[in-house]
Amino acid sequence: MPSWLRRSLGKASDISTVQRIVKQRQIHTICEEGRCPNRGECYSQKTATFLLMGPTCTRACAFCQVDKGHAPMPLDPEEPEKVAEAVQLLGLRYVVLTAVARDDLPDGGASIFVATMEAVRRLSPETSIEVLTPDFWGGSGVDMTPEAMQRQRIGLVVAAAPACYNHNLETVRRLTGPVRRGAKYDRSLDVLRIVKELNPNIPTKSGLMLGLGETMAEVVEAMRDLRAALCDRLTLGQYMRPSLAHLPVEKYWTPDEFDHLGEIARDMGFTHVRSGPLVRSSYHAGEAE
In whole angstroms, how far apart are CA 57 and each of 51, 53, 243? Predict the structure, then answer.
């Protein structure tokens, strides 16, 4: 692994506060479930990205460390309040709420995002809330087309007025099939388009992982596609293989290459860009405010 990807996880004393608060409430963070390389830094600053609806995803993306399964844990009806308590105890000014994909739920989990946002605002009314949602495709029990269901679910979250709506494209068009099983490139672009159609004032955001075999030209094309979907903010980071069971790293992009791509993105009109090997979609998210 290149030297620019090696970093300390941080001192146990620095991260223990967040870990204690999370474990006591039996809630989850993507920092832990996804083995984020920045979790030491974020925990030492008493920040975290909360993972809603349990630690098991109904999708099986080939890059992701989060557990997969067709029978996820039952929802915890107290989860929204538990997350809100954690946000309050940590004194967060800005919080990111994400979730596993829950294709087993009638609304894909959209109502859980809304309930958690409402709970956070009751206890911490000054806290800005960013959402990082799945594509809200699939599910059962509703007599509607998949497109109509997706729009309805996104609409529920948009109506709750997040400070930013994030949905990650993750990779370039050519690699979407093998990398994001169960997802579609254009379907993800549609998520961002729908948000802007429903409320043009909500900033939208997306992220790409590099190192899965994409070319520079393909990355630039993906950024153009995001801008065409009126995406405002962008993150670019290096894919790091979680285990031998996941896709291998085809290339380690250099810091200079990330800087170059960041410049291209800014020239395209993205209003906020973070581009670097260790950048992740929620890393320093509040700095865009």
Answer: 11, 9, 17
CB 122 within 8 A of CB 88: no
Q: What is the spatial distance between Cα 60 and Cα 58, in angstroms, rounded to a whole number? A: 7
CATH 3.40.630.30 is the classification of domain 12-281: no
Whole-model pTM?
Answer: 0.91
Domain ranges within the chain, ordered by starting residue: 12-281
Closest to 193 (Cα-Cα) out of 161, 169, 221, 163: 169
CA atoms of 289 and 188, how far apart (whole Å)? 24
**Buried (b) or exposed (e) across 7-42, using 16+ Cβ within 10 A?**
eeebeeeebeebbebbeebebbbbbbbbebbbbbbb
Q: State how far the Cα of 92 lies from the Cα of 7, in Å rounded to an integer.
A: 24
Q: How many CB atoms lie within 10 A of CB 210?
A: 25
- For the sheet containing 204-210, what is the strand order? 28-29, 49-52, 94-99, 128-132, 164-166, 204-210, 233-238, 272-275
Distance CA 209, CA 170 (A): 5
Phi, psi of 210 (to 5 degrees): -110, 150
pLDDT in 10s for each residue of the chain, 289 residues: 788 887 655 555 556 778 788 889 989 887 666 566 666 667 666 667 899 998 877 776 656 666 666 666 789 999 999 999 999 998 888 999 998 888 888 899 999 999 999 999 999 999 999 999 999 987 655 678 889 999 999 999 999 999 999 999 999 999 999 898 778 999 999 999 999 999 999 999 999 999 999 999 999 999 999 999 999 999 999 998 877 778 899 999 999 999 999 999 999 999 999 999 999 887 777 776 6
Smallest CA-to-CA distance from 129 within 119, 139, 141 is with 119
| Separation between Cα atoms, residue 199 and residue 196, nearest integer Å | 5
